From TrEMBL:
Family annotation (PROSITE patterns): THIOREDOXIN_1, THIOREDOXIN_2
InterPro entries: PDI, PDI_thioredoxin-like_dom, Thioredoxin-like_sf, Thioredoxin_CS, Thioredoxin_domain
One Gene Ontology cellular component annotation held by this UniProt entry: endoplasmic reticulum
Keywords: Redox-active center, Repeat, Signal
UniProt keyword Signal, yes or no: yes
Ranges of residues in domain Thioredoxin: 19-146, 148-272, 275-403
Protein family membership: Belongs to the protein disulfide isomerase family.
The organism of origin for this protein: Drosophila albomicans (Fruit fly)
Pfam family, one: Thioredoxin
Protein name: Thioredoxin domain-containing protein 5 homolog
Domain of life: Eukaryota
Length: 407
């Protein structure tokens, strides 16, 4: 009985002795929370409508106690750090629903976290329903905002220079002579009932698309069942017949394989782009492209592997909507121009991580933010470049791997 009477006293002493440690732990936790930098804009009922009215806003509605919200927090902050720059395509924001219950109720928030995209000028928001990872979220933003990427811009310029770029031009008796009178033309003469022509048709369309940025050539076709006189003038005796025509004159009849790779190589040869066969040719093509003083755009596993297999390849992994990527773009182009003019075995390249064909590449290469810069030497990836993104610093970084005094 005597022992039992001491229990409350002992408990009180323990509580008193532990209270300073508990208080200190809470203070430390609060201090860490205060010190943590938040890139996502905190919205409340007073600021919400004002921010939504100024541009596209992607909002995370959350509760601090929610486990899913806690796991999403670092990714959301990373996304905000990338996106919340000067004149952003979209602003990344957040609303604490434990503080602003009525605001969350107004926007049909029934669970946490709820992610909604508010597009400028539209009354209804769009709820994100995909997986909560960076590729899925960036793809959602890109798709909903229909952002024009670097590659799309270059294609737009190509179309301005040549309205027929990227498509097969269908020629008739009235248009044929004028169309082929100037420049280079790869023309397919066909008959709709011809089985070989039918099998070639999709490849011919892809060939035109693959050459969208080549202003020196057009890809055309003539239906010989409708426009016999044109086909007779060029002595077409079988289908399909592919002729290379320059300034209105037939140069030669194409007799090679009818796959996209071979046809593309043929066109490049005819317009003056060096072409070889096999894997060595593809590697050299990548180097030749880089020698044009432009950044090499990589798309798909095969292009990526070939470009990084030999020599030094410095790659920018990016998203078209990323503000930091847009700021880096002119420097990256200048890096390609300066580097290629002095070094033949270096490629400066870029990979758009938002396209379907590149998503897995970016995941495999452990791209966790944009832009991410990786240098590859003879197929081996080096540590991520985390230095200054100024031209001299980027050049100095490459110099470490080639061992030259000047770049």
């Amino acid at each position: 009985m005597l022992f039992k009477s001491y229990i409350p006293l002992l408990a009180g002493i323990c509580a008193l002795s532990l209270s300073p440690f508990v208080a200190n732990a809470k203070e430390e936790e609060q201090k860490q929370a205060a010190d943590e930098k938040h890139f996502a804009i905190e919205l409340d009922p007073e600021t919400f409508d004002e921010v939504i009215a100024t541009g596209n806003v992607f909002v995370k509605f959350f509760a601090p106690w929610c486990g899913h919200c806690t796991r999403l927090h670092p990714l959301w902050e990373q996304l905000a750090e990338i996106m919340n720059v000067d004149e952003p395509k979209v602003t990344i924001a957040r609303v604490d629903c434990t503080k602003h219950q009525s605001l969350c109720a107004d926007h049909q928030v029934t669970g946490y976290p709820t992610l909604r995209l508010f597009k400028l000028g539209e009354t209804e928001s769009i709820k994100f329903k995909g997986t909560r990872d960076l590729p899925a979220i960036t793809d959602f933003i890109n798709q909903e905002l229909n952002t024009v990427g670097e590659e799309d811009l270059s294609e737009e310029k190509a179309l301005e220079a040549n309205p027929n770029a990227g498509k097969v031009v269908e020629l008739t008796e009235e248009t044929f002579a004028k169309h082929v009178s100037n420049g280079n033309h790869f023309v397919k003469f066909f008959a709709p009932w011809c089985g070989h022509c039918q099998r070639l048709a999709p490849t011919w369309e892809k060939l035109a698309q693959a050459l969208i940025k080549e202003s020196d050539v057009t890809i055309s076709k003539v239906d010989c069942t409708q426009y016999r006189s044109v086909c007779q003038d060029f002595e077409v005796k079988g289908y399909p017949t592919m002729l290379w025509i320059e300034d209105g004159k037939k140069i030669e009849k194409y007799a090679g394989a009818r796959d996209l790779e071979t046809l593309t190589a043929y066109v490049e040869k005819m317009i003056g782009t060096p072409s070889k066969s096999g894997d060595a040719a593809k590697k050299d093509d990548a180097k030749d492209e880089a020698k044009k003083n432009t950044v090499l755009q990589l798309s798909g596993d095969s292009e990526f592997e070939k470009a990084t297999a030999d020599g030094i390849t410095f790659i920018k992994f990016y998203a078209p909507w990323c503000g930091h990527c847009q700021k880096l773009q002119p420097t990256w182009e200048q890096l390609a121009t300066d580097t290629v003019s002095t070094e033949s075995n270096i490629v400066i390249a870029k990979v758009d991580c938002t396209t379907p064909e590149n998503k897995q590449i970016c995941i495999d290469q452990q791209v966790e933010g944009y832009p991410t810069l990786f240098l590859y030497k003879n197929g081996k990836r080096q540590n991520e470049y985390n230095g200054s993104r100024s031209l001299p610093e980027l050049q100095a970084y490459i110099k470490k791997f080639i061992g030259h005094d000047e770049l």
